[in-house]
Known about the structure:
- The protein is an all-alpha fold.
- The chain is about 80% helix and about 0% strand.
- It has helices at about 1-45, 45-70, 75-95, 110-125, 130-145.
- The termini are far apart.
Amino acid sequence: MRKLTTFFIITLLALSTSLTAQTKDAHTTLKKHINNMVQKVETVDDPNEKRKILNNSLDDLITAVERVESMNGISSEDKTGLAEFKSSLQEKHNELNGYGDFTRVKNSQLNNFANFIQQDFEQADRVITISLTTALLIIIILLLL
């Protein structure tokens, strides 16, 4: 009996380590998506093209989150995390374009704004509040967009 209990404990620890690694991989993939956006923005000289890259990337992320939100089987905790993530993305989209109470980001500040999006995403770690499955669904949808 003791051997069986030890086996189950070791198995659970191994599975939780594996799940943690997979979760980090999914979150790393989302961070890479945002990092690619920043790199594209910084390599382009035309402000209109920079703004287009930022808008397209934010739109893709928002669309992916909305599609995952509408799927059956998403837990209430994940839906809350997705709503917070989407709200943050929408706020940045509004600020970029000067919607609502925001002043439009100046063309000369677009590189800084792209970096701000990346830093906010990494510091706030909003994606941590969603499960591995939900993060993977967002990644899959992003790849399809």
